[in-house]
Amino acid sequence: MKSINAAILAGLSLTVGIAGLGTKARALDLHTGEKTGAYYNKFCPTIKKAAKDKNLMFDCRPSQGSLDNLDKVIANPNDFGLAQYDLFSLKYTNQSNQPAFKPIRDDLGKECLFLVTKNKLMKNFGDVVASAPYMNFILPPESSGHAGTFKYLQSIDPSGIGKAGKVTHAASTEDAITSALAQEDNVTLFVHFPNADNKLFNLVNENRGHFVPVISKEILAQETQGRKVYSAEETDVANPKWHESGKKVVTACTPMVLFTGKSDLISDPSEKAAHEKAVTALQEMPADKLRPTKGWFSKLWTNTKAVSAKGVEGLVDATEKARKASSPYLRKAKEMTQDAVDAAKPTYEKAKEKTKETLDAAKPTYEKAKEKTKEALEAAKPTYEKAKEVTKDTYEKAKELGGKAIEKVGEMMESTKKPAENTPSE
Fold first, then answer.
1. H/E element holding 6?
2. Span 388-415, mean pLDDT?
3. CB 294 within 8 A of CB 222
4. Is 73 helix (H, G, I), strand (E, B) or coil?
């Protein structure tokens, strides 16, 4: 009897085990970015570890970045992804995409917009907007999140930065920065976590780049699903050194969003249930559990400082005034031309007076020279007439002598013929 019961129990255990293997949930794909980037190396492993404590399995999948992650979730709503919130908004504004996405968290980190040029005339975003048709925008690769952000800025401000006519893409973000800082008419834009120690910021500072605040009323007005796309933040762009202070810039920052597809789009009931469970678990986790805790990432959420409403208003006003004025290039040329005219005016008036004085002083000499010339002509007239008469006489004499010479030659030729005529024939 005992052996029978043992056999039954063993069979039940085997059946449960097989059933368990058959229903074991597969790992969920979390699309990140390049293998060298923070999404893949820092954020995904942290999320994966926290999710494991809730019996959720994630696989970190490398990708081309935010836009690629959004496309992958459109294709498979059961997947998860990380993206810049402005690029999430860029995709979401396409009406056909709105039912596809579900944002889960936007409190894990911020990425900020850094616009760089060598031209010190570019004091704010309004100056860049006013000069957009004349400047060269050298951006990171076209498939990158940096280039995607630039497209988003153009889409929300078509009459401003949307008028940028000279847009090219470099092979990398580093190449874009180096090329942009080679000439004053160039500008680039990159999006990054606020970390002044990063190589991109060091590259800008080594090439004496100038950070321009990316702030405008159009930028700060953007919302998607009731969430502000950008906020004005003060962030470090160069750390202090023993011989110089650090540098800060106030610019637009966008949250990093953890998102997935809508559960309603998942047809398999078991996958849909697992997906909803994962979404709920991620939403309920403390933010600190999902953020990297080592190095500067541990202070990521506090690496920027929100700007007061009054400060934002001042920055927006400055931008509006600049964008309504002429291009800094044209404005500067106009100012320089006017300065040159004003500076030259006294010299011109003085030269004009000197010229008048010179003419007045020279007038008696001119009149005297004129009179002398007249007298000289009168005095030379008899000589001229005499020379004219002599010339005429000489010509007539030469003509007479020439005629006589011709006659003489004729006579000589006739005389040579006569002996030949008198010679007797043989």
1. helix 2-23
2. 70
3. no
4. helix
